[in-house]
Amino acid sequence: MTRSSNLRRRLLFLAALALAVFSVAGCGNGMPQDLLTAPFGATGGHGSQPESTPSPGDRLASARATLGKARTDVYDGNYAMAIGELQSVMELVAGAPEEEEAQFLLGVSYLGRKNYYEAARRLEGFVQRYTNGKWTAKGRFYLAAADLGIGAPDAAIANYELFGKLEPSMRPYMDFVIADLLKGRAN
What we know:
This protein is mainly α. Helices cover 70% and strands 0% of the residues.
């Protein structure tokens, strides 16, 4: 194996290790469990309008149901299915609070499919748009993993540092990951 492939394998291993630590340490309610429990309130009922012209309430209820299915698909590793569902949700909820979670999950889904470039593009756009959002810290974490996948350890380190600032309880773990990345780069 070449030195660069060893470094890439090590970086991907570190990303997986950090994800495992992130899950066990319970950032928020833990990951991925808290992806399944985001509160959305009532889903609303069906109006009496014809099906061809759904009311805004019906569109939102449909989007929430689809978002719930997509959330489960992400948790179960059905990323391809989730991507289609999430794109549909984003069309239905443009500007609504559910759009933030849908965009986050879309980036995570591309990462799960190992489409690192698309994941990095989606997650970078997400963290730029939602700088103080509910999912921003996790977005930074997954963006760092995507950065490692595309061979951009400096960007990954920067995102792990930002994640550690946004989630102070995770800072010691991120310091460990960052130190290991720097050590691997020096070798």
